[in-house]
Specification:
Elements (H helix, E strand, L loop, with lengths): L10 H20 L11 H20 L3 H25 L6 H17 L7 H9 L3
Helix pairs in contact: 1-2, 2-3, 2-4, 3-4
Length: 131
């Protein structure tokens, strides 16, 4: 991972999509009727995948160590906070394993950010968007 953020041509668009993803995860976490799938441990896979996508998206936009640390801490705190808010809502229940699954998604994306994974958006722009 470099300390330089990529020079993305559509950074504003990518940020809007990223904030939309955050809004979706917040909504999905707090809705009174969450998606139900009859697959063992689907809930834990969904938590891990959701937070992997969030962290993975923002490490496409920000490469500096400080920014990656910020987003990692932010998403881990968000994952914990969503669980407490679920409990306060009285309809859904707090689950420590959901918190762990959220954190696992963040950590996997953080580890992958040290590879070519962090340059997917940059390569997409360079491949499909001419200067």
């Amino acid at each position: 991972m470099s300390d330089n953020n990529p020079d993305l041509k559509f950074k504003i668009l990518w940020l809007i999509i990223g904030y939309g993803l955050i809004a979706f995860v917040i909504h999905a976490s707090l809705t009174t009727s969450p998606i139900q799938v009859d697959v063992n441990y689907f809930d834990k896979y969904a938590h891990t995948a959701g937070y992997f996508v969030l962290m993975g998206w923002f490490v496409q936009i920000y490469h500096s160590r400080r920014a990656v640390l910020f987003w990692g801490v932010f998403f881990i705190a968000m994952g914990i906070g969503m669980e407490f808010l679920q409990e306060l809502g009285g309809v859904r229940q707090y689950d420590i394993y959901d918190m762990l699954a959220n954190g696992l998604g963040v950590v996997i994306a953080w580890l992958m950010s040290m590879t070519i994974f962090s340059k997917i958006l940059l390569h997409f722009e360079n491949l499909f968007i001419k200067k």
